[in-house]
Fold these 4 entries.
Entry 1:
Amino acid sequence: MKKVECDIAIIGAGLTGLTLAYYLRNSGLRVKLIESRNRLGGRIYTKVSENNTPLEMGATWLGNKHTHLVKLLHELQIDTFEQEIGETAIYEASSMSPHYLAQLPPNPEPSLRISGGSCVLIDRLASHLDEEDIFLGQFVKSINLGDDYIVVKSENLEIKARKVVSTLPPNLLGSNIDIVPKLPNEAEQIAKQTHTWMGESIKIALTFKEPFWRAKGLSGTIFSNVGPIPEMYDHSNAADSKYALKGFLSGNYFNVSKEERLTIILKQLRKYYGEKVDAYEEYHELVWRKEANTFTAYEQNVLPHQNNGHHIYAQSFLGGKLFLAGSETSAEFPGYMDGAICSAQNTYERLMQDGE
């Protein structure tokens, strides 16, 4: 088993973990990141298609109200561009009435996307860290408190640190990792009853050679109460040279095959666009419920956004050596990219106040 030591061990190399590591490294601290996936980013995942269209299979949008994210993007010199929504959208109110073109209200605050994909933010943060400080493909099994240290263990890695920060979705931490001594019962139960943002989502995308919907005078925006696609948008790139439609598929379809999902997606889109949709070049999807490194089944029924931003996450545990961070724990915009960064900033400040 490989053994390493550091000041701060961070579990999870998603947006919170990487942002926190970025701040801590800038303060001269020794940081190690341990990540169960074989890639960085967590719920930020930009799939680049064969024709180089960046497709967001995870976190996608931001707005000017997301001040923590906007500030970090500016600091890292990362550009954004406006999401194409259009003035009208295809709207399907019910199965008993035909779809129609609905006028959209003026949007005073546009939705923005990151130029080149949300992965640009992940890559830029990671570029400030040393390769030997990031351990991929390491599923954490336990967190054990020592006398003046705390230890994180995977199957073949042991990290001994002064403090540990978990940035995992709280239910994943509470359900999958053996913590010794155990968290207080209230904290453990709240963690297991904290909704994992996007955990039930299915993201879908179709790439096209040309944006045929524009030739029809359509924006690519769809809202349907019938489904199985409740929302879809024009997902062309910042240069408007690569074209795609991207949206959400009802989470009820997580257990059918990829081929079956594509069949029902095309069936719905043909209602709006005709056979033009059959000329798609590539189909991509991500069923987040099947991502074991993001989602695990709840022990009891949990409502959407339940316990997101709960005040218990402002506490530290195991004698002040274990901190719980991540977007779900943020008091501001929990579940969003902005919440992830806000959590990283708050955790950084708490660690520094503790003398790290």
Note: The chain has a mean pLDDT of 95.
Entry 2:
Amino acid sequence: MTPNVDHHADAGLHKQSHRHSHTHTHMPVTVSGRTMAAAVTLTVAFVLVETVYGWWGHSLALLADAGHNFADAAALAFSWYALSTADRAPHHGMTYGYHRVGILAALVNAVSLVVVAGVIIWEALSRIRHPELPSGGLMIAVAAVAVVLNAVISLWLFQGAKDDVNVRSAYLHMVGDAVSAFGVIAAGAIVLATHASVVDPVISLLIAGLIVWTSWGVLRECVTVLLEGTPTGTDMPAVIDTIRQVGGVLDVHDLHVWTVGPGVVACSCHIVVAEQSIREGQQVLRAVVNDIERRFRISHTTVQVEVEGCEPNDLYCISRRVRDASAPM
């Protein structure tokens, strides 16, 4: 039989009966803390301005947009904190580091947006029952500034939003608010042309619907990560086939793929090999890890090797293989 060896770098901390191989790569953060700080400062300042003018001009659409902008400011602040925290080094108490702080920030952002949308809907329905004619010109002027501000901040966040759900949640906040500001401009123009007071709460309801729509995708992705579900776009049967195609691998089971944090996807599995030397087994491990990383961008892989014919104390492995084999495809 092949000797039992643990090839982890911290071999002294692990007492396991199988060999393991690990690979680690970490994605760089693409949005700087200075950018996030500037975005938070500008957004908070504009929230104050928009709230004052919305109240003065009797425009629920402006107040709704101010509420959306306030959620934006909170989202940006959470994202800023998450980005700075994610850089902290792992330690014995947090062996994966702080990658999931960003996921928690994104979840809080998404939930806050849904709450804001609920408040806007409540106020819009109240305004429909008790209409007030807002100042159309004021709505247009303030909303035009909002469009420019949110568009600029969205451009600042665009690059980082591609790979980081935390930054993406903040980015969607800003894009959604830019779109809702266009709605306020349209409402202001209609109010000026027709003096129809109902336009203001109707546009507010549309803004609330937009907020919920933009939040749902981020909320679903965050829940999937926290439940350690398979990452979107990862084809598990393809992962299994890739591992089985590696020379020397007889079978694979107990396969798990999950997201640790933005840009960090982990995988663990058990592979079955024939009795062989440690050197030959190490070559198989490296081939499995390299193929998984190259094809699926999985940055943290743990492979446990089992020699063909499990030991009695490996009954768990046997039962898992039997169950996996009998499961419907």
Note: The chain has nine helices and four strands.
Entry 3:
Amino acid sequence: MARFTANASFTHRTPPLTAVVLVQLGTPDEPAAAPVRRYLRQFLSDPRVVEIPRPVWWPILNGIVLNTRPRKSAAKYRTVWSASGSPLLVHTQRQSVLLRGLLGDRGLDLTVAHAMRYGEPSLPRVLRGLREKNLARLLVLPLYPQYAASTTASAFDAIAAELRGWRNLPELRLVRSFHREPGYIQALAAQVRRHWQRNGRGEKLVMSFHGIPRRSLDRGDPYHCECHATGRLLAAELGLGSDAWIVTFQSRFGRARWLEPYTEPTVVALARGGIRKLDVVCPGFVSDCLETLEEISMEVRAAFLGAGGEQFNYIECLNESAEWIAALADLVERHAAGWPVARLPDDLQSRREAALVEREALAKARGAAT
């Protein structure tokens, strides 16, 4: 068996492909215990996600977590699942289509695909599909605005693991983070302003980011700092004073200390302190998902109202907003700079195709199979 995989469909007439792959975290295939268990096994087996030594973690994962959590998580997924499927996957698919359209409108000839780090469509499957189309240049855009080893670096690990088995590698570029990107900040601000125009403005804006273990920060992970940088930039874009907003962290898993302050205890304290109308936005999530629609809009809402709050306004993620798609296109244009991605006029395209035919004939004359 060959150690390295070749592009089975390659011919010298095949034009080189430049592609952008949007990478999201992932989602189960269905909101049921068995698919959720498969998803959690893959997710929680990643050493970037859980850094506990494997001999300690495996009995906990397989003996406890995967026997208790899937059914509970599946019930939560059912509360946000739509007829179209997982909200995270649906939004990511739409973003991919809209980005491809906008790049085309800007005169750029780029293939846009989307992949999940865990679950489907998997990164290996998407990359192999692009390889069969003669992938020559690959821009990886993880949809995590703030860098973390457990997200962005994990995506890179998966890409490197797949490419390790390829014979012919593409040129590779990776968008590390975009937490300070002006278009991203402006898109967030536009989303908040639209919500305020429709629903009025709360007394305080909570910016809730996904948490990570505190030890990750202590060991040099920049995620905490990048979340706060995003928070400051968004507050400045909205013209908010320092007492009008706060950064918090949600989705704590396990008993270890995570980044603080935690979102739910914070909103409870705000309600008990006299805040009656609260706005919550999740800048670290570019698509609505379980953590925003169920955890924030349902669980945290209930905690705030139960503590005496009167109005809890969850502000939707960027999803398919025009400002966000434009920000994505700007990111792609900048990171693809120098690559031949401009769409050719019809006459030049015809000349290019003729040149490829000539190249194929010349290659065969020199002994190539195709």
Note: The mean pLDDT is 94.
Entry 4:
Amino acid sequence: MAVALEKIAPPTDLTDSDQHTLFQYTFRRLAAYRNAAELYALAEYQLSALPEDKKQQVKDEFSTSLNKWAQDFANKTYMVCGQPDGDESPELDEFADTSIGDLPPFSPQRLAAVLNAALFLSIAESKQYSARTRSFLFNNIPKDSIPDEELIVTTLKHPDQALQEAQGKAEASTKAHASRGKTLRMVGMGLGAVAGGVLVGVTGGLAAPLIGASITTILGWLGIGGTAAGLLASGLAGSSAICGALFGVYGAKSTASMVERHTREIRDLAILPVSSNTNGDETLGVRLCISGWLSLESDVTEPWSVFGGDDTLALRWEVKALEELSDALYTLIKTNTMKYLRAEIIRHTVFASLLASLGPIVLLKVGEIIDNPWMNTKALAFKAGAVLGELLSNRVFGNRPVTLVGYSFGSVVILEALKRVASRPPSETLGLIQDVYLFGTPASTDPALWSSVRRVVTGRLVNGYASQDNVLAVLSRATDVTWKVAGLHPVDVQGVENVHFEDIDGHTKWKGKIGECLRRVGAVGIEDEKVEVQLRNTATIDKDVEMTAEEAQEISAKGL
């Protein structure tokens, strides 16, 4: 991808009206996003069983960190917009205006230019990409105004290209001046020093102040000056350090050793690549996917091949236990009990009353098949989640947003990890997790748990459930003596998106339809062609367990 320095630099052609409107639009959307996050923290406070002083401390620390993040991004945007209302950006707090109806129309391309620059400056200064920033941009800004993340990554990875292009434009612009010869000699000397500094000097060659001064001079020739030019110059000069912080130990191929340091109680855990960006560069976001059972070891990664875009990784955990669970699940669905339940569902029997009619002998038979693999996997999921929570908190994927996706016990791993993240100081976890998508989760709908998770998730928190999942319902009844699990019911917590999948009538359906489910909830990065391939493959596998209306009538007539 070509690098154009002016595309990440503050635009120089904004009118006074543009500057005011674009800043006010961003500022007010930012204020609305901030207020919603504050409400999630308030819900956690109200539902928490922690002592009053402790939960008040969590809430206060979260508010302080949230306000600092929001104000920092508002300040960058204000700077990029040319400080339209004076030297200081307005204060962004709970009283800030959130209405945008009175603002004049604006060009989406101009807003994109402003946000490109603001995001680059934010990353350059902080050496991180907060998940809050990304969630704000992806969910609160028009789609055609979202910053060009690929351009930002390319600029950080290849600052020399950006400077070479800038050199060409600077040379072209100086040819019209009378003092062309002297100026070009200065440009050539400056660029030579800069190129050396960026490519080799950052590791110990050229002094940083000289690098910054040279780049700032180039930016001046492009019409970019002031504090913004200084931050942009620092970002280009220090791009090596920024990339190291952004992409973390995974980018340095040392994840395995870090995982080993955190795995004492779990025997099998690793992070595997599913896909990566086609140009070889890491992306500004990373996605971690977790399967809930494995028919084959390749199921660690295969269900998640429907994703494109962000770097996509899969967590391999306790393969042997997940394979044993898969065998038990497929044995269970072929039993007379499960066939009878499926037949009754097809005949539109009320599911809750059907489950209530199951006697202890039937549940005992179910338990004989599934109890040990199910409960063993559940215990291991808690342990894997504890490890993942520590890895996330230690930013093993770098200082960039992480999206988590899972089904069945993969979702339990994620919930447990987020529970651990939520127990850390809010200042450490404010911008860590972007979106979370959970499907068929064999975990409680406890509002206190979900509200704490909602606080640490900066974007979407989706609970995909199937009220007709006969397998999960029976197993919940047989092993936990409860029906109130997230995989069967909506979670009644503000900010949790509950999506009902009526066509999922058995727990084993989640794996083969995970791409379709993600597409239906609007998950970012889903590729339609890959989803269709997954659905065709699943249809072939599911033939053995499908049931016609006539077969259902016959099985129902026989009874249990």
Note: The mean pLDDT is 82.
